[in-house]
Design brief:
Elements: H1 2-101, H2 105-133, E1 140-142, H3 144-156, E2 164-170, E3 177-179, H4 181-197, E4 203-212, E5 215-222, H5 229-232, H6 252-262, E6 266-272, E7 276-284
Helix pairs in contact: 1-2, 3-4, 4-6
Length: 297
């Protein structure tokens, strides 16, 4: 009887051992599946990281090429502008003197034309000098919404843009940014004017601000003609313009690009032909204001 009980105990112990082995086998199989799954996820993460690094490399390379191009053309522009500016000043000065002495109406009309076109050339030269100098910004804490509202008042006063509706969607929660108010106003004005000019038959110009993390985004959208995809990469190149001859110098967006870079920001562009364009100006937040109020309020 004792031997029989011992045999039964051995069988139970054997069954328990077999059960534990089965449980361990199943656990090992689950663990292996989890390990395989985790490795697969790691592979996906690594692939995404490599893709992000490649995109970052391309973006950095493109930005470096753009900076080198702007610097080279800036040096050329400075030399050309200085060479042109001196004789241009003489032409304009003596044209005004002759205009005062002119007695014939036709002479006055001809001189008015000379003065008008010479003045236009002078504005182009000034644009060249502004672009070439790249004056460093005088930064202070700014209320961006106040800068934008002031700029939009200038845009809305232009008679040729009366058919354009302007919509402000400015977030009141946007913190101040550290920047040069005059330079940032120039950026917003350049892009708004381009947007309005892209809507000769009227349309909607929408300007919004929003905070995203440690940055503020100014979005300027129009419902105009849009920019062909093959031209988007060139719109920040100096002297590149799609406007008719005499309507633009091709420096507005180049100067704006340089200003935003000097503010440690960047500009993004989305556009569809026939539907319009959106320019996004991304700027870092200011670092404290010492208890004072942002400029522009």
């Amino acid at each position: 009887m004792k031997a029989r009980r011992t045999l039964e105990e051995l069988e139970r112990e054997n069954a328990l051992l077999l059960n534990e082995v089965e449980v361990a086998r199943q656990a090992a199989a689950i663990t292996a599946d989890l390990v395989v799954e985790q490795f697969a996820k790691m592979d996906e993460v690594n692939a995404l990281l490599r893709q992000h690094q490649e995109l970052l490399k391309v973006a950095t390379s493109s930005q470096l090429r753009q900076n080198e191009k702007l610097a080279s053309i800036g040096r050329l522009a400075a030399g050309v502008a200085h060479e042109i500016n001196n004789p241009l000043t003489g032409v304009l000065t003596f044209s005004h003197l002759l205009r005062k002495r002119a007695k014939e109406e036709q002479d006055r009309l001809d001189l008015d034309l000379i003065i008008r076109e010479t003045t236009r050339v002078r504005e182009i030269v000034r644009g060249l000098l502004d672009f070439a100098r790249g004056s460093p910004p005088t930064k202070e804490l700014l209320d961006l919404n106040a800068v934008i509202r002031r700029t939009l008042r200038l845009v809305s006063s232009q008679a040729e843009f009366k058919g354009v509706s302007i919509r402000e969607e400015l977030s009141e929660d946007v913190p101040p940014v550290l920047g040069d108010g005059n330079q940032l106003q120039q950026v917003v004005l350049n892009i708004c004017m381009n947007g309005c000019e892209a809507m000769p038959n009227g349309g909607m110009l929408r300007v919004s601000t929003v905070q995203k993390g440690r940055e503020v985004v100014i979005a300027i959208s129009d419902t105009g003609n849009g920019i062909p995809e093959q031209q988007i990469e060139r719109i920040f190149d100096p002297f590149y313009t799609t406007k008719p001859v005499g309507k633009g110098t091709g420096l507005g967006l180049s100067v704006s690009y340089g200003i935003v870079q000097q503010h440690q920001g960047h500009i993004k562009v989305d556009s569809k032909v026939g539907r319009g364009s959106t320019f996004r100006i991304v700027l870092p937040l200011g670092q404290g204001n010492g208890g004072g109020r942002p400029a522009g309020q």
